[in-house]
Write a structure and sequence with these properties.
The structure is a homodimer of 100-residue chains. Helices cover 62% and strands 14% of the residues of chain A. Chain A has 100 residues and is of the alpha+beta class. The first copy, chain A, has one domain: Arc Repressor Mutant, subunit A (Orthogonal Bundle), CATH 1.10.10.10. Chain A is globular.
DNA sequence: TCCTTTCTTGGGTATTTTGCCAAATAGCCA
DNA sequence: TGGCTATTTGGCAAAATACCCAAGAAAGGA
């Protein structure tokens, strides 16, 4: 595989890796309904707040979400609504039993 | 996060994890053009054939591809063309620089 | 200033993923 | 059967991820 081609697929996979975790998919669904602060997401997810913060950092570095500080809270919001078409496709795959 | 909800997101993330590798994304693109045997994919990818075979196994277990044996060759083909709409979305994300 | 709340970062450990080699399996043909 | 090609599987070491705890940073109120 040629280097420039490889770079292209690596860029794609970086974004997909950010999506490849149940907690992060859950967070994206919640943010699709509207912005949430970290403490709200932490309550919904039910993990340590530092864990939730790190998941949010992964999604932000992938360019999927952004945040805004207001007071001592940080509100996150979805940047890419098209992620949900994609999730729709994934759900079609999960509904179809794998071969064998 | 409630158990049944968690199961749902775990199922989604299992499929997305299968997509989260540059070599596997490359293979999916090649299979979108038509079926290929392992040796053809190996030549295009340029990795050890056992590595390519394992990537194909990951994609198959996720329900994204299937295979057919003909003679002593194994031909793989794409099961889910919708994967490409979704790649289109990913490319939009990669074209937009991440915040900060 | 001090205390509280909210969030991020550092660090250690545990788990998962990756990629190569070597060995095993399977089909074809002589 | 023997040899050849195509592919999968086992195993291992290296790299990447995940999660919790503890510590740090930033904002607000007393």
């Amino acid at each position: 595989m040629e280097l420039s081609i490889r770079k292209h697929y690596e860029a794609r996979s970086r974004v997909i890796k950010a999506l490849a975790h149940p907690t992060r998919l859950f967070i994206l669904d919640k943010l699709a309904e509207g912005e949430h602060c970290v403490c709200e997401l932490q309550a919904m997810v039910g993990a340590d707040i530092s864990t939730v913060s790190k998941h949010l950092s992964v999604l932000r570095q992938a360019g999927l979400i952004d945040y805004e500080k207001r007071g001592n809270q940080v509100f996150y919001r979805l940047l890419t609504p098209c992620v949900h078409q994609f999730i729709h496709c994934i759900d079609e795959v999960t509904r179809t039993p794998a071969p064998e």
